[in-house]
Amino acid sequence: KKIFTVQGPYPIIRRLLQARGWVERKLSRASSQPWRQQQHSMQEKQLQQEKGEEEQCVEDPDGNHDLMSRLVQDQVPYFIWTNHCSAVNVRLLRQDQVLNHYTRVDAFATKEGLCRNLRNLPWFAQGDPDTFFPRCYRLGDADERQAFIEDFRLTAARSLLKMALEGAGDTLAGPEQQPPKSTKESGELAKQVPMSQIPYSMPPTAGPVSFLLPQLVEEALRICEQHLASLRHQDIDGDFTIPCVMGTNWDHFMHDYYRVAHEGAVLALSEAQTEQCRSLLQCLAEQLPQLGMEGTHNVWILKPGAKSRGRGIVCTDRLEEVLRLAGGCTAPSAQAGKWVVQKYVERPLLVFGTKFDVRQWFLVTDWNPLTVWFYRDSYLRFCSRPFSLRCLEPSGHLCNVSIQKWFRTAQGQQHPQLPPDLIWSCHQFQSYLAQVGQASAWHEVMVPGMKEAVVGALRSAQHLVGARKSSFELYGADFLFGEDCQPWLLEINTSPTMAPSSVVTSRLCARVQRDTLRVVIDRKNDPACPTGAFELIYKE
């Protein structure tokens, strides 16, 4: 029964199985794609160079593997590794055929599925998704679209209070401060906005200074107080519904919010208002785990619900732009159903002033009982431009390799201490943390948080996945870290790329494939065999 089939760019899997004495039953079109072997020769070379390993890539100078493959073309493969689950009709598989995919994993492995099902986590486990998953809404659902609009407005009100405190010299500043407007810019702003268009009373001023909006602070305080009262009485059945704040002219409020947030208008605070803002934000922080990471710019990230590699993702700080891009300005539409909108982490942990995320692998070998393996090695992906909320271009905010490869050629903006290929191993990152006085953060905060998020995401969708006993699946989770080193789960990917985009990924991708086979094949015959960097973190 040691017959296998590999579909897709996985030469490492093929070579490791052959080293174990397995024979490949080749797919009919595999021989017509020799470029895939050449594309991943770096991985094969790296695996061969690792000393002391029992599994080495097997060459075929005499053509023995090809001969054996021809002899088993009519035989049943008992180990199947494919790029996508759709490549195999799972219903026709025998019970003893091992497949590297489960069915119906879109319940957590798409942005739309993760957004929908993580809300149910409190029903399955003692966990709060708001502590590790930025709040997210499906714009194709009318109720969720309205909840997003309310969330955007409430976030704007909280941002006004934060900006008012920052202007008063308080300590709630985010990763960067807005530069003060020059005298010329302030004078131009005063000319562009007539007094008759300002809905809140402001004292007349002499000279080119920015406007003061004292009543806007009062309105923001009233909105946040109403929201706080509703949060203190929130029911679990309404976990994603945000109550509508009564008595607010939202068009006027948002107009003035944009003037403060984007045009440099200044908020004036009395001493009593300063203390009221500080106290109210502290109370909101007890109810809203994401208050710290949401910053002051009200930036949201709009994502296609089922695409990968950063395709179609847009960052924006305008409510109207989100609704326009999603096709939801006038009425619910099929186009809007393809999008999710998620709160952007405005206060991320930066390395040399640059944003990054982490690709973290994990392996599921059973869904009933749920059995999860966490890979100890991971890698960082950097943006090619310094982080700034004043510019929301992809080069500074989307860490996907497939996005950043278009920006690497520009010189002068990438930090000189970042690697040219924009990839670090987690060990390089740990060395950096030690240099900045955070040596314990990785093992005490970051890794435990990622493990908790992975298990929480899986448990929230466990009842929806096709739990075939002879299957397993390797996933790639993407995490971002806040300034406090707390991890935020962004998405979970099936068939994570094994392409050697750098020296680091060439080495790590080869190792994770090797260790995956140790867990799913070798461990069946020898439960005490080494599992490499895989660690069993959860088994029901």
Strand content of the residues, in percent?
Answer: 5-15%
Please provide the count of β strands.
Answer: 14
Overall shape: elongated
Measured between the Cα atoms of the first and last residue, the distance is 30 Å
- Number of distinct helices: 17
The total tally of domains equals 3
CATH superfamily caption of the largest domain:
ATP-grasp fold, B domain
CATH topology of the largest domain: D-amino Acid Aminotransferase, Chain A, domain 1
Contiguous low-pLDDT stretches (5 residues minimum) are 30-39, 49-58, 171-209, 236-240, 328-336
CATH domain class of the largest domain: Alpha Beta
- Rg, nearest Å: 26 Å
Organism: Psilopogon haemacephalus (coppersmith barbet)
Main location: cytoplasm
Catalytic activity: L-glutamyl-[protein] + glycine + ATP = glycyl-L-glutamyl-[protein] + ADP + phosphate + H(+)
InterPro entries: TTL/TTLL_fam, TTLL_monoglycylase
Describe this structure in words.
The protein is an alpha+beta fold. It folds into three domains: 1-27 and 59-99, no CATH class; 111-134 and 348-539, D-amino Acid Aminotransferase, Chain A, domain 1, CATH 3.30.470; 137-170 and 210-344, no CATH class. It contains 17 helices and 14 strands. It has helices at 11-19, 35-39, 41-49, 64-71, 106-109, 111-117, 121-124, 142-167, 183-192, 214-231, 250-263, 271-287, 319-325, 401-404, 426-435, 441-461, 503-525, and strands spanning 3-6, 23-24, 79-81, 98-99, 136-138, 300-304, 314-316, 339-343, 356-367, 370-382, 423-425, 473-481, 487-494, 534-539. The strands form three sheets. Strands 9, 10, 11, 12, 13 and 14 form a six-stranded antiparallel sheet that branches. A hairpin with a 5-residue loop joins strand 12 (473-481) and strand 13 (487-494). Helix 8 (142-167) crosses helix 11 (250-263) and helix 10 (214-231) runs parallel beside helix 12. The longest helix is centred in the N-terminal third of the chain and has 26 residues, at 142-167. It is elongated and about 85 Å long.
